[in-house]
Amino acid sequence: MFKGRSICALAVAALATTAQCQQLSYEDSVTALAYGNVATDTSAEGTVWLNVTGFAVDKLPHIQEDLGIHTLDNLKTLNAIAGLAQDAATKGQWGDIVYLYSAFAMNGHSEYLNVSTVEMQESLLDAITNQDSGEIDHQLADLYASTSSSKFLVDAFHGLKSKPSTPSKRWLREVCSNAHLAVKNSCRSLLQNVRGNATWKTGSPRSICKYGCCISWSANATFQVENLTNAANYCINACGTSNVSCEVYGVKLQGTLVDQCLSNRATGCR
Ligand SMILES: *[C@@H]1O[C@H](CO)[C@@H](O)[C@H](O)[C@H]1NC(C)=O
Ligand SMILES: *[C@@H]1O[C@H](CO)[C@@H](O)[C@H](O)[C@H]1NC(C)=O
Ligand SMILES: *[C@@H]1O[C@H](CO)[C@@H](O)[C@H](O)[C@H]1NC(C)=O
Ligand SMILES: *[C@@H]1O[C@H](CO)[C@@H](O)[C@H](O)[C@H]1NC(C)=O
Ligand SMILES: *[C@@H]1O[C@H](CO)[C@@H](O)[C@H](O)[C@H]1NC(C)=O
Ligand SMILES: *[C@@H]1O[C@H](CO)[C@@H](O)[C@H](O)[C@H]1NC(C)=O
């Protein structure tokens, strides 16, 4: 997963084995990730959880929901990130957790991991922004900068600037958004696994991701994966040119009404 000399970080982080590897420290692993120093993991699919219940509410006011992802392509990376986040919690490295949770939510997709990418900056900004006022909480930004293991992250938290909110284009059934944009090519690839797929889904996690694109839905439903096709396809056609973020309201998944989202993260569109 990690390029070059950090190649063993995955094993260290996920399995805590150092047998064949020179050990990469926790700090080095976070730094390698934050610099985008990861190779694409073409390994495997599966479900991974990043559970944050019980993590300090006062330190992480915007990160309190357990997050599960069914990934079609990036199982090892997600396991490594989830492992690092558990370490971060025991160390009180709140800034690291904000970054790791963001990376996890975006399917650990290598093109989004570098802290300087538009996608990661947006996610870090969300974590320090008061949802009601839209203002940056500078105390939180300082807290996260002072509890980050990597200089890249410290700089990122210091440099975040609030954006003027951009109005979303609203239709009757769907909203195209400028936030949390996913690369359309990733979404098309994801759709290839969804279309004609009769596998049953129920319960959690309520997301399925491939590369830089995730489909998520707002409520528990029991349905077949292919039932996600129409809304996702609709979004790809209705929104954007090369990127898409879109929510469709009132999608019926074999009897259950949900809002379905297509974006760069498992946590929804906004
Ligand atoms: C991460 O972003 C920085 C700043 O844009 C860039 O200098 C660096 O090369 C990137 N890292 C990788 C591994 O591409
Ligand atoms: C994480 O939380 C989910 C539900 O919130 C639960 O189903 C899952 O078993 C938990 N996983 C771990 C490893 O605690
Ligand atoms: C169908 O969807 C499930 C996800 O629930 C996935 O595990 C499986 O690989 C998909 N099948 C194909 C052919 O993509
Ligand atoms: C999800 O909904 C199904 C019925 O559609 C139900 O059997 C199942 O227990 C629910 N799961 C959760 C985690 O609520
Ligand atoms: C969901 O998919 C199943 C086949 O997998 C199909 O029979 C059913 O009509 C679909 N339901 C909806 C509401 O699209
Ligand atoms: C799509 O997203 C990429 C990465 O954020 C960006 O470089 C590109 O300009 C975007 N394209 C459009 C048309 O918005």
From TrEMBL:
<dbReference type="Pfam" id="PF20493">
    <property type="entry name" value="WD-like_fungi"/>
</dbReference>
<feature type="domain" description="WD-like">
    <location>
        <begin position="68"/>
        <end position="269"/>
    </location>
</feature>
<keyword id="KW-0732">Signal</keyword>
<protein>
    <recommendedName>
        <fullName>WD-like domain-containing protein</fullName>
    </recommendedName>
</protein>
<feature type="signal peptide">
    <location>
        <begin position="1"/>
        <end position="21"/>
    </location>
</feature>
<dbReference type="InterPro" id="IPR046925">
    <property type="entry name" value="WD-like_fungi"/>
</dbReference>
